[in-house]
Amino acid sequence: MTIRKTACIAGAWEHPLRKAPDHTVPQLHAECARGALADAGLTLADVDGYFSAGDAPGLGQLSMADYLGLKLRHTDTTDTGGSAPLIHVAHAAQAIAAGKCDVALVTLAGRPRSAPSGVGVGPRNVTAETPDVAFEMPYAPVTVNMYALVAARHMFQYGTTSEQLAWIKVAASHHAQHNPNAMLRDVVTVEDVLASPLIADPLHKLDCCVVSDGGGALVVVRPEIARSLKRPVINLLGAGEHIKGQHGGQVDLSYSGAAVSGPIAFAEAGVKPSDIQYASIYDSFTITVLMQLEDLGFCAKGEGGRFVMDGNLISGVGKLPFNTDGGGLCNNHPANRGGITKVIEAVRQLRGEAHPKVQVPNCTLALAQGTGGLLGSRHGSATLIMERE
After folding, report:
1. How far apart are CA 179 and CA 16, in angstroms?
2. Spatial distance between the Cα atoms of 303 and 301, rounded to a whole number of angstroms
3. CB of 256 within 8 A of CB of 292?
4. Which among 106, 109, 107 is positioned nearest to 7, based on CA atoms?
5. Alpha carbon of residue 351 to chain centroid
6. 269-316 pLDDT, tens digit each
7. Strands 103-110 and 74-76: what pairing?
8. 124 pLDDT exceeds 80?
9. What is the pLDDT of residues 8-65, one digit of tens each?
10. Is the backbone peptide bond immediately before 223 cis, with ω within 30 degrees of 0?
11. Cβ contact 284:333 at 8 Å
12. C-alpha dist (Å) from residue 169 to 263, 287, 323, 326, 349
């Protein structure tokens, strides 16, 4: 079912806290929900569809829906890690088009900074029932190592350099300096990135995202509801989703799931990568950004290193402004799955509500891209394309 102009994003809110030792995860979800609904001019009583993933306590839905006091006609707990919130937005639009709900709430929240439970440098915490456990867990794969494998392969195959990856962090830092809530607000140079400690060759400390508490929420509604509210109307034009796995041992680290989800979204939206004025790209690591930029078609495969150089991702300077809130590399990465903030910043850009120093002039077409899981093994990918009406 196509989502093109079947639903609109009416509310978006990002939690300002980056460390919340005095909050519970349900409290964070609730505060994000109220913030997004207030932004839209709606209340919890208006919500009849709820979308959340494994970060929502109580089987993702049962306890949280009760905690929020929601009276629902439709729910969805699809969990693909960092790409889940983008999939939820698309699924909400499909549900609205099918008449399953009118006002859909999407929430994400977590406390990985206050209650560390594996933040990328320890063995993955998976259950014994996971089918890959017997084959992979004896080798104790670590998140950062799995991304380092992808970076090393890209460097070997295409000649990509650490200096080129560093430009991604540099661009994020130029944007984060204008975000009062960002965890890292200092502008860095390529030299700063390369001088930071090597975490997993070839990735340095500044190639890695921050770890934060917090979260965010989105409200997706019928177009007629959106037009009745006192907010800019943000139409959903296209969406794509994909899960990339190991393919029975035929592993190809040269591409990500965005190579599948991206073309689906562009075809549904009826636009091309060259039409996009702003892009929110999931940035768990610098290599994550580079891979997705290539796979989404912003540059040819193997050309990502050259594409990101010399400030090409910096708003007001380069061809493709990205992550103007500072992204996961500098701003926040809540719940170990920061995809929802990618949509939130895209909405800000389309509304003209981003910081004046990073706002893209007359921004009418934006993309958000999410990745969840491990780029070096199996991961989910989701792409959203949105326009200001």
Report:
1. 10
2. 5
3. yes
4. 106
5. 19
6. 999 999 999 999 999 999 999 999 999 999 999 999 999 999 999 999
7. unpaired
8. no
9. 999 999 999 999 999 999 999 999 999 999 999 999 999 999 999 988 886 667 889 9
10. no
11. yes
12. 26, 10, 11, 9, 20
Phi/psi for 281 (5° steps) reads -120, 125
Mention every residue, 6+ apart, whose C-beta is less than 8 A from residue 108: 29, 32, 52, 53, 55, 56, 84, 85, 215, 216, 217, 334, 335, 337, 339, 340
Q: Quote the pLDDT of residue 246.
A: 87
Residue owning tokens 């990509």: 160
Query: Is residue 327 helix, strand or coil?
Result: helix
pLDDT recorded at residue 60: 60
Beta bridge partners of 109: 215
Beta bridge partners of 365: 387
- Amino acid (one-letter) located at 24: T
Return the amino acid letter for 150: V
243: phi then psi, degrees, rounded to nearest 5: -120, 120
Sign of CA dihedral 366, 235, 368, 329: positive
- The DSSP string of 159-214 is ---HHHHHHHHHHHHHHHTT-TT-S--S---HHHHHHSPEEETTEEGGGB---B-E
Assign 239 to helix, strand or coil.
strand
Measured CA to CA, the distance from residue 94 to residue 84 in angstroms comes to: 15
Euclidean distance between the first and the last CA atom of the chain, given in angstroms as a whole number: 22
Residue among 49, 196, 19 at smallest CA distance from 113: 19
Residue type, 244: K
